[in-house]
Write a structure and sequence with these properties.
alpha+beta, nine-stranded mixed beta sheet, four-stranded antiparallel beta sheet, 15 helices, 20 strands, elongated
Length: about 450
């Protein structure tokens, strides 16, 4: 029994050649990283097709099974539901359902089988031509949800993740029908929650697929993985109507920390940003950085360190991610060259001789302690950077400082002196936060 297409001709072209050419035009360049899980929008292709394709093409091309988790728009569902079709029809050819895995999902997670819930549902169907195009041999495991606990979706991911033949699509648009300026703020806030693995207080109004997104966030957080942005837009880009827009975003799962992803694939670009920022300062201009990957639009914290003949020549940075990483790098590189109060402004002659080091900081983690010894016990030399704060006194040491101060007591003592406190200072109001860095030298 085959599920007939309900969205062909409306959400996407019904003609095979036209649809193939349209999806082909969405391919900008091959992704640098192949993933096993993505969040993609599910609107009509004129609105979000390019962004959805950008997400789906990150999936492993040799995957055998694509799990699709999508919200139900037309039928009221409690929990999750599956179907007992053999295949779904698409203009690019039928896409087969892995009925064995569907049965496993049904038995393990108490899903019902409700075919009529899939009849008009576009949140799954719009993904199928993209899956057929990019993963032509894969079978699908379609799952619709309504009033469902996101922890159940996280459990489903955990259960089927062990088989590397399985990949996962979370189908979801973002905010609906706000004025564009307001939607921009809401969707930016949602994006930062996704990118920080933070689902606390995630509201249903932020995304129609909020349950699926939160389930993937919890899974990502448990695994210490990261969700990397591939794009963020809204319907006004296609319609020109900014009065009531729908937001769209796409992310892929990276099996590691975001800063390691940046170092592995974009080290040269990071150094280029810093060099151009410093050079623009010498030329009294503004750096013109364009055509950069969306990961640099995510909030990030960085330190830029300049050395001349192995001696420090400037170091400025951010300890908290408070702006897009690309802006943070541009600002800190310029400040390290021209605004470090310990040094005069860099000269053109020095620019040709300096070396640049960039440290990308993780989110600071509060250290709970009652005594100084307890604080020191929580520090890993050569690994942890440290921030201390007490009232208006604050200072930070990057992990690099351990090379000069390998003893924990000396490390902390000199950090207190840097903050303007006595070396033996301690109080109940003293706060400490540790972090780690990924260094691009």
């Amino acid at each position: 029994m085959k599920k007939k297409s309900a969205s062909a001709g409306t959400f996407y072209p019904s003609d095979k050649e036209e649809l193939t050419n349209l999806i082909g035009s969405f391919e900008i360049q091959p992704p640098v990283y192949t993933s096993r899980a993505v969040i993609v929008p599910h609107a009509g292709y004129i609105y979000s097709g390019k962004l959805a394709a950008k997400g789906v093409q990150h999936l492993k091309r040799d995957a055998k099974n694509v799990f699709i988790f999508a919200p139900a728009h037309y039928e009221r569902i409690f929990g999750c539901t599956v179907c007992d079709y053999d295949a779904f029809e698409t203009p690019l050819g039928d896409i087969e359902i892995n009925k064995e895995l569907v049965q496993n999902v049904k038995e393990l997670f108490d899903c019902s089988t409700v075919n009529f819930a899939f009849e008009r549902e576009h949140s799954i169907e719009v993904q199928l031509p993209l899956i057929k195009y990019f993963l032509p041999s894969a079978r699908i495991v379609p799952v619709l949800y309504g009033c469902e606990n996101f922890k159940n979706l996280c459990g489903t991911l955990e259960h089927f993740w062990a088989d590397e033949d399985n990949v996962f699509v979370i189908s979801s648009d973002l905010s609906h029908f706000y004025p564009e300026k307001e939607a921009f703020k809401i969707d930016g806030y949602t994006a930062r929650m996704i990118e920080e693995n933070n689902f606390s207080n995630f509201e249903q109004e932020q995304a129609c697929g909020a349950v699926g997104i939160c389930g993937l966030i919890e899974f990502t957080k448990k695994k210490n993985f990261s969700l990397i942005r591939t794009g963020l837009t809204n319907s006004s880009a296609a319609t020109g109507d900014s009065s009531r827009v729908v937001g769209y975003g796409s992310w892929f799962l990276y099996e590691g920390q975001k800063n390691n992803y940046i170092k592995e694939y974009y080290s040269d670009f990071v150094k280029k940003i810093c060099k151009e920022s410093i050079l623009s300062g010498l030329q009294l201009g503004q750096p013109r950085i364009s055509n950069y990957d969306c990961v640099f639009e995510e909030y990030g914290a960085s330190f830029v360190t300049l050395e001349l003949d192995g001696i420090l020549r400037g170091c400025i940075g951010s300890i908290i991610a408070h702006k897009p990483l690309i802006k943070d790098l541009i600002h800190n590189a310029h400040a390290a060259a021209f605004s470090d109060p310990r040094f005069p402004a860099l000269t053109l002659n020095e620019y040709n001789k300096i070396t640049i080091g960039v440290s990308l900081l993780s989110k600071p983690e509060r250290i709970e302690f009652e005594t100084e010894d307890e604080l020191l016990e929580n520090l890993a030399p050569a690994v942890d950077g440290l921030i201390i704060r007490d009232g208006n006194y604050q200072s930070v040491f990057l992990p690099d400082v351990w090379e000069q101060l390998p003893d924990k007591h000396e490390f902390l003592g000199h950090l207190k002196l840097k903050a303007g406190l006595p070396k033996d200072y301690f109080s109940e109001s003293l706060e400490a936060f540790k972090f780690n860095t990924v260094k691009i030298a």
